[in-house]
Design goal:
alpha/beta, five-stranded parallel β-sheet, 21% strand, FAD/NAD(P)-binding domain, Rossmann fold, 438 residues, 31% helix, six-stranded mixed β-sheet, binds flavin-adenine dinucleotide, 2 domains
């Protein structure tokens, strides 16, 4: 009995994003002997903090300092460049660790579900944001920005991010870590008009006021709203919270003049995508006018074609299915009961609850899953990281440790232009060779 109490509980957390780190932190902050390996398919930690959060919103990325502190602990280890499904199977991990926690996020774009969405020039926000944020999967995306008009579909902050990054000048992005390949394309693009299209109205939009307000303070681009799409002004007195603040920004945009600046950002409400138009590549999008009845979006039957050479749907994400893990097709997450998938297998963060909330929302999620694990699982004397290291060696895999990542980070900081925090690498082999000193 006494021996059992002393036994180490070995946990493999798959995914080094916020959910993975909050779970590891909570698992190791009690009395029990718990050792956590945080495994990520990329050689870089921090998930969407690095690859999703906008490159001109550096202060938000500071949360990664907390995850760094977790990595300073002896009982937590980062194992980068190791992919579940490619390098190692779930069964192998379950043989080695008492618990496997999936924290793999939701990286696949949710389809629009309209004709033409496979045309060249329709690029989901997961891919587009990954491209401008140096995600290795999208470094060669090479979107054609020699287009006059771009349609960004969605009324949340990701749509606002995409529109803003396309609209800002090189000077406005100088203190960001925008990927160089993206900066080269964006800052020499032919874009004159950017449309943010929402199916419903301003009162239903999910923008946050700070992000929306930034659109009305761009150097070269004027934000425009058709005042007739906003509710009558006497409604404003009844509004509260974010909706009230958003309305202040939208009313100000409705007063802007279209020729005030060289480029324009149009926020259009009550427009539902019907079809994407084009032969080999996109030339426009058919939109149906809608009304909102009892909070629901209803088509009016009236439609129009908006010319656009690039369409970026920002309408949400799905998790990637994994072998031997039951998948909820409708919600795009792993099937789970409050995080439990099956004995010893859990999920947390976006792959558990879907792509909602802020970075901070993943903290109670991680704390909750950690408490559940500590209550439900007993250490069984498994091999843990020693077993993983043996497999890594046997297969000739190159893993990236946290110390290795710090070398990559130092090289990125050293390569940064004046005023920029870092020049991100996007090539896995390049990062691995920096990590091993070659
Ligand atoms: C474009 C965008 C901008 C955002 N901006 C903000 C913002 O400004 N503020 C805010 O509060 N929130 C923002 N968010 C939300 C925030 O990023 C998420 O809440 C958070 O990242 C979700 O955490 P997660 O750990 O579940 O997933 P992720 O952060 O996606 O982490 C998942 C990790 O799992 C790894 N992984 C996936 N599959 C495997 C595998 N098979 N093997 C090994 N590893 C794997 C991935 O490489 C990744 O590192 C933004 C989201 C997006 C998409």
């Amino acid at each position: 009995m006494a021996e059992d109490k002393q036994a180490t509980l070995w946990v493999a957390v798959i995914g080094a994003g916020p959910a993975g780190y909050y779970t590891a932190e909570a698992l190791t902050s009690g009395e029990q002997d718990v050792r956590v390996d945080i495994i990520d398919r990329l050689p870089t930690p921090f998930g969407l903090i690095r690859a999703g959060v906008a490159p001109d919103h550096q202060s938000i990325k500071n949360v990664s300092r907390r995850y760094e502190a977790t990595n300073q602990r002896d009982d937590v280890r980062f194992v980068g460049n190791l992919s579940l499904g490619r390098d190692i199977t779930l069964k192998e991990l379950q043989d080695l660790y008492d618990v496997v926690v999936l924290a793999t996020g939701a990286a696949k774009d949710r389809p629009l579900g309209v004709e033409g969405e496979d045309l060249n020039g329709v690029i989901g926000s997961g891919a587009f944001v990954g491209w401008y944020n140096s995600h290795p999967d999208y470094k060669d995306l090479d979107p054609d920005l020699r287009v006059a008009s771009v349609a960004v579909i969605g009324n949340g902050n990701v749509a606002v991010d995409v529109a803003r990054i396309l609209a800002k000048t090189a000077e406005e992005m100088a203190s960001s870590d925008l990927a160089q390949h993206a900066a080269d394309e964006i800052h020499s693009s032919a874009i004159k008009d950017i449309y943010i299209l929402g199916r419903r109205g301003s009162l239903e939009a999910a923008f946050t006021p700070k992000e929306l307000g930034e659109l009305n303070a761009l150097e070269n681009c004027v934000a425009l709203v058709d005042g007739t799409q906003l509710p009558p002004e006497d409604v404003d007195a009844e509004l509260t919270g974010a909706t009230k603040k958003n309305m202040v920004h939208l009313r100000a945009m409705a007063k802007n003049s279209a020729d005030a600046k060289p480029t324009r950002l149009h926020i259009q409400f009550y427009r539902r995508p019907m079809a994407i138009i084009g032969e080999d590549c996109v030339c426009g999008i058919r939109l149906e006018e809608t009304v909102v009845e009892d909070g629901k979006c209803v088509g009016t039957g009236k439609s129009e074609v908006l010319p656009a050479g690039l369409i970026v749907p920002c309408i949400g994400y799905r998790s990637s299915p994994l072998e031997d893990v039951p998948y909820d097709e409708w919600r795009g997450v792993y099937q789970n009961e409050e995080g439990l998938i099956s004995d010893g297998l859990y999920c947390v963060g976006w792959c558990r609850r879907g792509p909602t909330g802020t970075i901070g929302t993943n903290k109670p999620d991680g704390v909750g899953i950690a408490a559940k694990i500590l209550e439900e699982v007993t250490a069984a004397g498994k091999a843990g990281r020693h077993g993983l290291d043996a497999i890594v060696e046997e297969r000739g895999l190159t893993i990236v440790t946290f110390q290795d990542w710090k070398k990559i980070e130092a090289a990125e900081v050293e390569a940064a232009a004046d005023g920029a925090p870092r020049a991100k690498f996007a090539d896995v082999d390049e990062m691995v060779s920096i990590a091993d000193g070659s």
